[in-house]
Amino acid sequence: MRNIKYALPLCLALLLSGCRTGAEERPQQPPPVTEPPVTEPPAPPVVPDEPETPVQGAAIIYDTDFGLDVDDVGALAMLHVLADRGEATLLGVVSNVSDPYSPAAIDVINTYYGRPDIPVGLAEGGYYAEAYPYWRDPSPRYIKDLAETFPHDTSTNSAGVPTAVAVYREVLAAQPDRSVTVVSVGFMQNMSALLASGPDVFSPLDGSALVRQKVKKLVIMGGAHPGSSKDLYLAGGREMDASFAKRVLETWPTQTVFNTGEVCGSVTNGQTLAATTPEDNPVRASYTMFFGREGRGRTSWDLCSVLYSVRGLSGPEGRYFDTLTDEHLMLSREGISRWVAPGNDRHVRLTRTMDRRVLQRLLEDFITAEPVGK
Ligand SMILES: [Ca+2]
């Protein structure tokens, strides 16, 4: 359109030589080599403003004890389905078990849902190095089977995988301020190490300042109301080291929402995977390997954390949760937790308002949905 302003002067200048507008007469001779009559510099190449993967919906980092229980798999599947629907963006996944099969198994799920390049990090320190269900013998170790059976490109040698802290710092540094939701569904040594981290190539900020600047909210699956002396994640697992959770509870600088064990303790998921999804679905395979047979469901602790983290208290199906802020969670060095009044402006506790069976159907619909494009 900009060339129009040159059309009239050009016509006037060329009047005597018979300027004509439009296509009223076709030339009898083959036209000369056509060059634009008005010379303008070529447009510079378009440089997109957006990052490579624009964030849609809730921006999520998922911190999981992937391998200890199987609801972590269902919750990761749910994040992918929410991402398929434009409701969430999975920025990174970090494992808080040190088992080297854990990142590879996470990448199996990411690959199945068409997101094979999501950064995956692994906990340091040797904690929980044998990621098997803590109440069982080590035999049903589904993450090893997943990594050895399904497509992925993540090393099963921990030396070839970035640390969880590195993934946290790189992902957070690249995001807008106060935009990221951290979903913690396992142990807390990654978040503790992040808080204690110093400046690096990704950010000049120390860990605490980086979290304060970039994180909107932390959602923790763990604890019980009114308290517990044996909560796995607060007490520090088999190592019984509560110092990681204690640091997070006392110094994490953003609002922290607790999905305590009883909120979704009666809500199951996964029982219809074998009947409704194909055999090459690794979510289905995880549940089958975990239980040793098909058709069994698992408690939806981690899935409820994902639902709240992405959708908040309510969604198209109605109201899922309410919140209470009149107490805060205290943790002793021995790992004994207790909710005590008054509130402290940071700790929020979820309660469930949706009927158990309605919520169960909703979660099952998520984890049995096939990936977009499959
Ligand atoms: Ca978990």
Commentary on this structure:
- The chain has a single domain (58-368), classed as Ribonucleoside hydrolase-like (Inosine-uridine Nucleoside N-ribohydrolase, Chain A, Alpha-Beta Complex).
- It is an alpha/beta fold.
- The chain has 13 helices and 15 strands.
- Calcium ion binds at residues 64-65, 69, 72, 185-186, 302.
SSE map:
Layout: H1 4-13, E1 58-64, H2 71-84, E2 88-95, H3 101-112, E3 120-122, H4 142-149, H5 164-173, E4 180-185, H6 189-196, H7 207-214, E5 215-221, E6 227-228, H8 232-235, H9 243-251, E7 255-259, E8 268-269, H10 273-276, H11 282-291, E9 298-299, H12 301-311, E10 314-315, E11 318-319, E12 321-324, E13 328-331, E14 337-340, E15 347-352, H13 356-367
The structure holds calcium ion.
Calcium ion (CA) is lined by residues 64-65, 69, 72, 185-186, 302.
Supply the helix-strand structural class: alpha/beta
End-to-end separation: 43 Å
The description of the largest β-sheet is:
8 strands, mixed
Total separate domains: 1
Poorly predicted parts:
1-39, 44-50
* CATH fold topology: Inosine-uridine Nucleoside N-ribohydrolase, Chain A
Given the structure, what is the number of helices? 13
Could you tell me the mean pLDDT? 87
CATH class descriptor name = Alpha Beta
- Our Rg estimate from Cα atoms comes to 27 Å
Q: CATH H level: which superfamily?
A: Ribonucleoside hydrolase-like
**Could you give the count of β-strands?**
15
Shape field:
globular
How do the SSEs run, as a string of H and E? HEHEHEHHEHHEEHHEEHHEHEEEEEEH
Beta-strand content: 15-25%
Q: What ligands can be seen in this structure?
A: calcium ion
CATH architecture annotation: Alpha-Beta Complex
